[in-house]
Amino acid sequence: DTEVTQTPKHLVMGMTNKKSLKCEQHMGHRAMYWYKQKAKKPPELMFVYSYEKLSINESVPSRFSPECPNSSLLNLHLHALQPEDSALYLCASSQVSLSGTDTQYFGPGTRLTVL
Amino acid sequence: GQSLEQPSEVTAVEGAIVQINCTYQTSGFYGLSWYQQHDGGAPTFLSYNALDGLEETGRFSSFLSRSDSYGYLLLQELQMKDSASYFCAVRDTGANNLFFGTGTRLTVIP
Question: Low-confidence residues of chain B, pLDDT below 50?
Answer without folding.
Answer: none
